[in-house]
Structures are given as structure tokens and as C-alpha cells.
Amino acid sequence: MDTIVSLKQAIEQIVKEKGIDRQVVIEAMEQAVLSAANKKYRNTRNLEAHYNNDTGEVELFEYVVVVEEVQDSYTEISLDEAREMDPECEVGDELGEKIDSGDFGRIAAQTAKQVIIQKVREAERETVFNEYKDRQWEIVTGQVRRFERGDLLIDLGRAEAILSGKEQMPREVYRPGDRIRAIITDIAMTTKGPQIILSRTHPQMLAKLFEAEVPEIGEGLVEIVNVVRDPGSRAKIAVASHDRDIDPVGACVGMRGSRVQNVVSELRGEKIDIIPWSADIARFVCNALSPAQVVKVFMDEEQRTLEVIVPDDQLSLAIGKRGQNVSLAARLTGCRIDIKGEGKVEEGDLEEFASFDGTHVEEEPEEMAVDEETDQQQPEPEIAA
To answer: Which fold is adopted by the domain 139-199?
Structure first.
């Protein structure tokens, strides 16, 4: 009895502290006792289990139907026998008798413990899911817990998140216990609990880092229009200002480059080109090709295709190593960009015409192998419709 009383007290305490529905625990205990009893009696009897709040135990009852002639001794009882129990009973009545629950009380105690643990776990999972479900695209900091087939399991404190291999930065190496920052890209509830997906390669990771570093972005004075990345290598971010007195590029760069340098450090040296956005597509493309200079632009507005003419000595710079610069520019602007050198235009030789539509180039032409990144001022390009 002491065990049962202590069990009752424990249930009441858990219900109060964890906020679990008391009836859920009681019903689970009743079902456990009933299942164990039916198994013992091989489902030959009509049994019911009920929790007695006064005694703190699950009581087991056997029910039989009053009949004139007994055909099933497990579920039926004769009228004469029934009237020994209840003188007023009639044929067709159902009589219930409490039977010795024996070891079933211990089963109830074990079940209560299991139910409590399960419900606490479910409540904690629900709490974690509710805490993170509205935090998509938020940067979080966690600790590397372990590796699973190339994926990192990150401890966020109250929750565990997954940073898959494809969402990790190239050449980054982590060990259990290392601190790591990543952006939440998805939160879903699964049978195993909330699943939080992280990324360090998503463009929004870069955008959120700038948002944290640049107060003007948080205040709405500077807007990040678009971001494209080759994670771990190079990125371009287009920014616009909603205040004439604020230079969006300068705001993102910061005093002596302090703001952009903090972002670069977090991304392990990833080069970042900050591009002023323009509603003029041709001008925007010229900005996006920075640091290369542009001489002239031929534009097909309907097809969103631009032919960009650059000085011959700027051709490899405009295209970039393995076509990276023009590829990022095309993805940033949403345009197809065709580039050729000034000398080739004069000669009318289109064999050296370089065409890019935002996809990577597998092989790098020898004459384009040098990536000369400079901070030269671009002259105003000539734009032709």
C-alpha cells in the first residue's frame, strides 16, 4: 500500500510540475492493467479496470450476465447464483465483482512511470518545436555534439539540430565540442521529435550576418536586394539605400572595412563583393561585374540578355577564375551576360566570344586563368539599346 500511496503522490506531483493531463496517465494505467489481465485469462472474461482515487490503485472488475441456463461459465451466471449476490437481480442484468488484481498493481505502477516519462518527453518536444517553429532564417549558435555519416549534430541547448554535409562550408573542419554558428532553414515535427535543419552555405546566412553587423539594415534604411554565393569562395550582395544621405555600400563596408571583415571572418575568408543595386538593368549588371571595368553594354530587355564589352586587359577579370565573377553576376541580376573584349569587337571575330548564363564553367581557358582582383574606379559605361 505504501508503494501505491507514494505512486499516487508521485503522479500528482508530476501532473503539477510538468503540466501533463492527469486523466491521460490514469487511462494509460487502466489500459495496462486490463491488457495484462486479459492476457492472463486469455480474453475469456469480461473485465474492466478502474482507478480508485481514494486508494490510489487500479481495481479490476469481472462482469457476468444473469441467464436462466449457463452456457459460458466465464461470462454468464445463473439466476439462483446471481440472487445470492444481489437478491433483486433479474435475467439479463449484468453483475460486476471485484477480483484480486494480484501483480497487476505493480504493472500499474510501472506503466504510470513509463507514461509519465513518455508524456514529459512529448511535452518537452512540443515546447522545443513551439520555441523554434517561428525562428526560420535566424542564426543560432551551438556546439558540435557528434558526427553521423558526414552530418553534424549540433547541440543548441534545449534542442538538437542537423547540419548536413552539403550545408557545411568547404574545407571547414569541426570536432566535438567546437562552437558553430549557422542559420535555421527548416523546422519540422517528426515522430522522433522536432527536426531543426541548419545551413552555413545558404545565401540567407550571409544576409543575416550583414543584418547583425549593419544597424542601417535593421532600421530599414539599407535593404539587401539579393545575395548569391559560391560558399567558401566568393559572394556578391546587392544593396540599396532608402535614404539619400546613406551610401549602402559604405554602410555595409563600415569604418576601415570593419563590418564586412567581421562577416568575412565568420565565413572563413569568403570574398564578398558589395554591389549597389540599380533599377537600370544595364547599370546593375555593370556594377555586378565589379571589379572589372565596362566599356559598352548592348541590351535586349525582352530576353534579359546583355552583351558586355570590356577592355581586352579586363576580359579575364570580368569573367573571373573558372567563370566565377560573371556567373555570380548573372545569378545576382537574373540576366544572361555575354562578354567579349574590346579588340574582338573591332575585329569582328566572334570565336573568342564568352557566353555565360549563371552556370559554372567546367574548364578554364588558359587566357582566363588569372583572376586580377583590384579596386579600380569604373568609368561610366556606354549603354546601347
So the answer is: OB fold (Dihydrolipoamide Acetyltransferase, E2P) (2.40.50)
